[in-house]
Write a structure and sequence with these properties.
By secondary structure, this protein is α/β, with parallel strands linked by helices. It has 16 helices and 21 strands. The structure holds NADP nicotinamide-adenine-dinucleotide phosphate (NAP).
Length: 548
C-alpha cells in the first residue's frame, strides 16, 4: 500500500512478510500471490526499485546487458518492454520496475516508507513478530529478506563534515532532483564502480574536479550503444535458450565459458584474446578469455598487465597514468565498467589526488584537507560504498529461537545453508544472501532462482500442512565449509575487497559469496529440494542430511 492510499492494518497476521521492494521483493510478492498466500512487502524507500531507487547519481547504469538484467518469468512482460541501450540507465531500470509493480498490481501489498526494525521469532506461536519504524507490529508465519547486498550505505564519517559550507551527497542517497555542478569545484571521494561511472559525467559540467583516490581499480570499457529494435526482437526470439545459458553459466550471463589456460597459449594468442575482449567491452571483457583468470597468479598477471597497458595508453600524464594503475589481482575486487573514465583525466580540469600517500584528514568549512594540503570545494561527492552483503540484514534486530540474535551468530562471519536459511532462525529466507553466488553474478538471474526456490519450498510446506522449516546445524556447517574451501582455491580472498568485508572497520574478514557459479549452485539447490529439502528440519522432523 502506498503512503498515498489507505493505511494497511498495523497488526495484521500474514502468511509471509517480505522486506524490500527491489527486483527481489517485487518478484517474491508476485510468486506469493500466485500461491494464494497473504503477503506484505515493507520498503523503507518512498517508492519501489531498491538499488535503482537509491542510486540516482550521474552516470548510474547497469553493467550487465539490459536484455539479461531483467525478469524472465513472464513472456508477456519480456515482449512488451523495450530496452533502448545495451546497458540500461538508472532511470530506465527504475521505469521498468515501476511498470512491473503496476502491471502485476503489486503496489497494494507494498507498504512504502517503512523500515523494518526488528524480527523476533515466537517459537510457541510459530510466528515472526515484525516491528517497523512506523509503529506496525505484524505477525507472519514466514519472513523473506529481500534487502539487497549493496543497500546499507557506508556513512561518511570524516571529521568536520558538519562544518562544510558547500553541498555534499552520498551517491547511494542521491537527491531525486538533479545536482547542478556547473561552475563548481567538485571533490569525488572513491574510485569504485560508482565513482568510475560518475566522474566522467560530473566532469562534463563542473569547473574543476578533484578525484580523491585511495586504491585504483581495473575498469573495462562499456562499449555502450543504442539497442536497435530489430536486434532486441532477434534476442527475444531466442530468449529461452539465452536465459537458460545464463542460468547455467558461472556469472549468470549467456557467455560461453573459456576453454584454455592463459598459460597454454602463446603471448600473441593471449594478446589477441584480450584485445578481442577489450573491443567487445563489458565486465567480463578479460575474465572470460581463459579458464585460470581467477585461480592462477601468473595467468591473472597477464590480464593485469594488459589492463595496465591500456591505462598507460589512454592517460597522457605519466604520473597520473601510473597512479591509476591497480596492483591487485584483477577481478578479485569487483571489476568496474566505464564510459570514458580514464580519458577524463586528459581534460585539464580533472585532477587525481592520491589519498593513499596523503590521507584525508578532515573536512573543513571550505573543502577537504589531506595530509598534503587543503582543496577548496563547492560540492563533495562521497562514492565510498556499502556495508555489503550482510549490512542491510544486520541493520534489522533479528532474533531467532531462544532469542538468539543473528548479529551474535554472525559475529565471526555469516553462516547459512545455501545462503538461503540460517540454523536457529526457522521460516526465515534470504534472497541472494551470503553463501550464494549473488554479488558475483547477474543479480536478476540469481534473484529469480532464489525467489522460485523459496516459493516452491513454501508450496511444498503448505501442501503438506508443515508449519516450520529450518536449516540444520550440520548442513549449515557443511555449506559454510564448502563455500570457504572453494573460495580458498581462488585468488578472491587475497584482495582487501568488500567481498571480504575489508572496507568496514571491525567487520570479520570472511569471503562471503559462493564462487562455484550460478549453474552449479542451481543444481545444488534443486538437488536439496528434490530430496525433500535435505539438510533442513521440516516441522520438527529432520529431512535426510546432505553432503557437499
Ligand atoms: P566501492 O567499490 O566499495 O568503492 C568505494 C571507494 O571509496 C573505494 O575506492 C574506496 O577506497 C573509497 N573509500 C572508501 N572510504 C574511503 C576513505 N575514507 N578515504 C578515501 N577513499 C575511501 O563502492 P561503489 O563504487 O559504490 O561500488 C560498490 C559496488 O556496487 C560495486 O563493486 C558494484 O558491485 C556495485 N555497483 C554496480 C554498478 C553497476 O552495475 N553499474 C555501479 C555502481 C556500483 P579503497 O578501495 O581504498 O577502500
Amino acid at each position: 500500500m502506498t503512503p498515498q492510499g489507505a493505511r494497511p492494518s498495523r497488526t495484521a497476521d500474514l502468511d509471509v512478510a517480505v522486506v524490500g521492494a527491489g527486483f527481489a521483493g517485487l518478484y517474491m510478492l508476485h510468486r506469493l500471490r500466485g500461491l494464494g498466500l497473504r503477503a506484505r512487502v515493507f520498503e523503507r524507500g518512498t517508492d519501489v526499485g531498491g538499488t535503482w531507487f537509491w542510486n540516482r547519481y550521474p552516470g548510474a547504469r547497469c553493467d550487465i546487458e539490459s536484455v539479461d538484467y531483467c525478469y524472465s518469468f513472464s513472456s508477456d512482460l519480456l515482449a512488451e518492454w523495450t530496452w533502448t541501450e545495451r546497458y540500461a540507465t538508472q532511470p530506465e531500470i527504475l521505469r521498468y520496475l515501476h511498470h512491473v509493480a503496476d502491471r502485476f498490481g503489486l503496489r497494494r501489498d507494498i507498504q512504502l516508507g517503512t523500515r523494518v526494525t526488528s524480527l523476533r521469532y515466537d517459537e510457541p506461536g510459530a510466528r515472526w513478530l515484525v516491528e517497523t519504524g512506523a509503529g506496525d507490529v505484524v505477525t507472519a508465519r514466514h519472513c523473506v529478506l529481500a534487502v539487497g547486498n549493496l543497500s546499507s550505505v557506508k556513512r561518511p564519517d570524516f571529521p568536520g563534515l558538519d562544518s562544510f559550507l558547500g553541498e555534499w551527497h552520498h551517491t547511494a542517497r542521491w537527491p531525486a532532483s538533479s545536482v547542478d555542478f556547473r561552475g563548481k569545484r567538485v571533490g569525488v571521494i572513491g574510485t569504485g564502480s560508482t565513482a568510475i561511472q560518475a566522474v566522467p559525467q560530473i566532469a562534463k559540467q563542473a569547473d574543476q574536479v578533484y578525484v580523491f583516490q585511495r586504491t585504483p581499480n581495473y575498469s573495462m570499457p562499456a562499449r555502450n550503444r543504442p539497442l536497435p529494435p530489430e536486434e532486441l526482437r532477434a534476442v527475444l526470439r531466442g530468449y529461452p535458450g539465452r536465459r537458460r545459458a545464463a542460468q547455467m553459466s558461472d556469472a549468470g550471463v549467456p557467455v560461453p565459458p573459456p576453454e584454455r589456460s592463459a598459460l597454454e597459449v602463446s603471448a600473441e594468442e593471449r594478446r589477441r584474446m584480450y584485445e578481442a575482449g577489450w573491443r567487445r567491452g563489458g565486465i567480463n571483457a578479460l575474465s572470460y578469455a581463459f579458464t585460470d583468470f581467477f585461480t592462477d597468479e601468473l595467468a591473472n598477471f597477464t590480464a593485469q598487465e594488459f589492463a595496465r597497458e591500456k591505462i598507460r595508453a589512454i592517460v597522457r600524464d605519466r604520473s597520473a597514468a601510473e597512479a591509476l594503475c591497480p596492483a591487485h589481482h584483477i577481478g578479485t575486487k569487483r571489476t568496474c565498467v566505464d564510459t570514458g573514465y580514464f580519458e577524463t583525466y586528459n581534460a585539464g580540469h580533472v585532477h587525481l589526488v592520491d589519498v593513499r600517500r596523503s590521507p584525508v584528514t578532515r573536512v573543513t568549512p571550505r573543502g577537504l584537507e589531506t595530509a598534503a594540503g587543503e582543496y577548496p570545494l563547492d560540492v563533495i561527492v562521497f562514492a565510498i560504498g556499502f556495508d555489503a552483503i550482510t549490512g542491510a540484514i544486520l541493520e534489522i534486530d533479528i532474533r531467532g529461537r531462544g532469542g538468539a540474535t543473528l548479529a551474535g551468530k554472525w559475529s565471526g562471519g555469516p553462516r547459512s545453508h545455501l545462503g538461503l536459511c540460517v540454523a536457529g532462525f526457522p521460516n526465515l529466507f534470504i534472497v541472494t544472501g551470503p553463501g550464494s553466488p549473488g554479488v558475483l553474478s547477474n543479480m536478476v538471474v540469481s534473484i529469480e532462482q532464489h525467489v522460485d526456490w523459496i516459493a516452491d519450498c513454501l508450496s511444498h510446506l503448505e501442501g503438506r500442512g508443515i508449519d516450520r522449516i529450518e536449516a540444520s546445524a550440520g548442513a549449515e556447517d557443511a555449506w559454510v565449509r564448502h563455500v570457504n574451501e572453494i573460495a580458498g582455491a581462488t585468488l578472491y580472498p587475497r584482495a582487501s575487497s568488500w567481498y571480504v568485508g575489508a572496507n568496514i572497520p571491525g567487520k570479520p574478514r570472511v569471503f562471503m559469496p559462493y564462487v562455484g557459479g550460478c549453474g552449479t549452485y542451481r543444481r545444488e539447490c534443486e538437488e536439496v529440494a528434490g530430496r525433500g529439502y535435505a539438510g533442513f528440519i521440516l516441522g520438527g522432523t529432520a529431512a535426510p542430511p546432505i553432503a557437499f
